[in-house]
Automatic annotation (TrEMBL):
InterPro entries on file: Glyco_hydro_43, Glyco_hydro_beta-prop_sf
Keyword DNA damage appears in the UniProt entry: no
Phylogenetic classification of the source organism: Eukaryota, Viridiplantae, Streptophyta, Embryophyta, Tracheophyta
Gene3D superfamilies in the record: Glycosyl hydrolase domain, family 43
Single Gene Ontology BP annotation: carbohydrate metabolic process
Source organism (scientific name): Brassica carinata (Ethiopian mustard)
Biased amino acid composition, Basic residues: 86-101
Family in the record: Belongs to the glycosyl hydrolase 43 family.
Protein name: Uncharacterized protein
Length: 445
């Protein structure tokens, strides 16, 4: 997030990772998620060979099969009209945050006095939903924007408990963990990595910043390893932190922080590949370049190997996923807390080169597509049992009250030819499209 302006400070976190268990699938959220990987990747060699041949309609169909029947409802394009309220005087706060070319609806989104505020941040009390509520036909639907952080007393279990802070904001509590077996009902597992109350020189001191924690399971050591962005209130430390636990639900022991490969590191994520090798992705060189490097076998450090990708492109909030031997990534641009246009990227090798696939957002309206539905990518989670389908998880930041920021979860589907011709593929539609479909409410297929 706040790429360009360090003073804009903190942001929430999310987590992710994979764990395989045979009988019980335990979905666990750490800030977000620790989870089971159920997607089996099956690519036939034949298909790959055919990709080398000249394109034809038949081949197109083979390369880009129609979406899984279970997804029929989720890939329906849903338009949504947002109407601007009558013009009025803006709160000074919003004007200060004016971007170079303000979009009126984004100004509205950022204005905490906006009369249409409830469209972006529905009242948590009245927007009650969840399995314990009698919602009739609305039960078991996700309502993007209604998930929040914090507040144990609410029904909003898809939340992360207090996370990070700048001097003016709520103190750091630590990293929260929620678990679920069905991605719907959630158990609050409490704080799994707590803040340091007294020791001011400690990375986790409550005056510091902890963002974007991710947890991955190491089969060789049997440990759960958490990677996170560690910073001071002024975003000058720009480091990664590492913590370890025997259980996904903690408690995690904090090990250390460092600047990976000697570089500044802000937005980051970790991705564990099918072969057990895990990688650190981080926005570096003042958010202008993305760095990718494999972790050591025990996942407790980076190795000396590192690639610089998307040089000069100023991308942050990377979320990585894989389908049929292709790696995908969603990123945002750096505009502080203001939402911006997401990009999808693809690569045959995780270390790159990564190529742009274009804006993945489908439906909603023009402004919401240009603002990632007023949110920022944080994690992409495989949808169990539906190859090529994922849950796109994003943070809808509320700059005036960051702890009331929301989650936007939407279906993400890989399929159909990419709509952006690529630099190195001679116009050949080698990549599939990545689409994130807007739904004001939806449920798992
Ligand atoms: C405070 O934290 C620092 C950094 O982790 C550590 O070196 C130091 O020993 C701690 N001090 C106390 C009194 O625990
Ligand atoms: C952050 O910056 C302010 C003003 O520039 C300074 O007073 C403060 O000591 C800095 N804090 C840290 C943790 O670097």
């Amino acid at each position: 997030m706040p790429g360009n302006s360090p003073s804009l400070g903190l942001r929430g976190f999310s987590g992710g990772g994979c764990r395989h268990s045979l009988l019980t699938i335990v979905w666990t959220v750490v800030g977000f998620f620790l989870a089971a990987h159920l997607i089996s990747l099956y690519t036939s060699k034949d298909d790959q060979q055919q990709q080398q041949q000249a394109p034809s309609h038949h081949l197109q169909q083979q390369l880009h099969p129609p979406p899984h029947p279970a997804l029929r409802e989720l890939v329906r394009v849903k338009e949504e009209i947002l109407r601007l309220p009558p013009p009025r005087k803006r709160s000074p706060r919003t004007s200060k945050r004016r971007s170079r070319k303000p979009i009126p609806m984004v100004e509205e989104f950022l204005d905490d006095k906006s009369p249409i505020r409830h469209l972006f941040f529905p009242d948590m009390k009245t927007a009650a939903f969840g399995p314990t509520k009698d919602m009739g036909n609305d039960a078991f639907h996700y309502f993007p924007g209604r998930f929040g952080w914090t507040r144990k007393e609410t029904q909003f279990k898809l939340t992360a408990e207090g996370f990070c802070t700048t001097r003016n904001l709520a103190r750091t509590i630590g990293v929260g963990c929620y678990s679920s077996k069905d991605l719907w009902t959630w158990k609050n597992e409490g704080i799994v990595l707590g803040a340091e109350e007294t020791n001011k020189t400690h990375d986790l001191h409550k005056s510091n910043v902890l963002e974007r924690p991710k947890v991955i399971y190491n089969e060789k050591t049997g440990k759960y390893v958490m990677w996170m962005h560690i910073d001071d209130a002024n975003y000058t430390k720009a480091s990664v932190g590492v913590a370890i636990s025997d259980h996904p639900t903690g408690p995690f022991e904090y090990l250390y922080s460092k600047r990976p490969h000697g570089f500044d590191s802000r937005d980051m994520t970790v991705f564990k590949d099918d072969d057990g090798v895990a990688y650190l992705f981080y926005s570096s060189e003042v958010n202008s370049v993305l760095h990718i490097g494999p972790l050591t076998e025990d996942y407790l450090d980076v190795t000396p190997v590192m690639k610089r990708v998307m040089v000069g492109q100023h991308r942050e909030a990377p979320a990585i996923f894989k389908h049929e031997n292709t790696y995908y990534m969603i990123t945002s641009w750096c505009t502080g807390w203001a939402p911006n246009e997401a990009l999808a990227h693809a690569a045959e090798s995780i270390m790159g080169p990564w190529e742009k696939l274009g804006n993945p957002c489908v439906g909603g309206n023009k402004v919401s597509r240009l603002t990632t539905f007023f949110a920022q990518s944080t994690y992409v989670f495989p949808l169990p049992g539906v190859p090529g389908a994922f849950i796109f998880m994003a943070d809808r930041w509320k700059p005036s009250d960051l702890r009331d920021s929301r989650y936007v979860w939407l279906p993400l589907v890989i399929g159909g030819p990419a709509d952006q011709p690529l630099e190195s593929s001679f116009g050949f539609p080698m990549w599939s499209r990545v689409s994130i479909y807007w739904h004001s409410k939806w449920h798992l297929p």
